[in-house]
Design a protein that fits this description.
Shape: globular
Number of strands: 4
Radius of gyration: 15 Å
Order of helices and strands: HHEEEHEHHH
Largest sheet: 4 strands, mixed
Number of domains: 1
Strand content: 15-25%
Helix content: 40-55%
Structural class: alpha+beta
């Protein structure tokens, strides 16, 4: 199993995520994990910026006006960077997110996001379910829904 899946499963268990999380639930998880969330009027294609400072402050700044699907994706995406960052604790780290991440981009991070947004406790027949049904249930992007179905089929989680 890859690191993104393992960390997401640990976080799902730690925060008792037994259904598809709403924006307020995701925001609360980020705060409990020590990741501050702020909003800003970014121009162009920037959707968010994850930043960890030398003194350990971690901040996820998201573009004002994101729809629910993008907002949930970006919160999960930022939390994945927070949990999966391999940079030394004493270094600064900045990740600029442009538009919504596409399928195949930052695989571990996207795997983490798909598990957090549709946790294993949401019992679905992944052999028969369609991406549209997952999108409707969890309010996530099509790329993330397809990724979650593929993870379930491959890893049986």
């Amino acid at each position: 199993m890859n690191p993104g899946l393992e960390k997401a499963l640990m976080l799902v268990e730690k925060h008792h995520v037994y259904s598809t999380p709403s924006y307020p639930h995701l925001h609360e998880i980020l705060l409990q994990e020590g990741l501050l969330v702020k909003f800003f009027s970014f121009n162009g294609g920037i959707t968010g910026v994850y930043c960890r400072t030398f003194d350990g402050i971690e901040l996820l700044t998201l573009k004002n006006g994101l729809g629910e699907t993008e907002l949930k994706h970006m919160l999960a995406y930022g939390l994945a960077f927070h949990c999966l960052s391999s940079a030394p604790a004493l270094s600064a780290y900045i990740k600029v997110m442009r538009d919504c991440p596409k399928q195949g981009f930052d695989d571990d991070v996207e795997n983490f996001a798909s598990i957090l947004l549709v946790p294993p406790q949401v019992r679905l027949d992944y052999d028969r379910i369609t991406p549209d049904e997952v999108i409707s249930l969890a309010r996530i992007s099509e790329a993330l829904a397809k990724r979650r179905i593929n993870i379930a089929r491959w890893f049986r989680i």
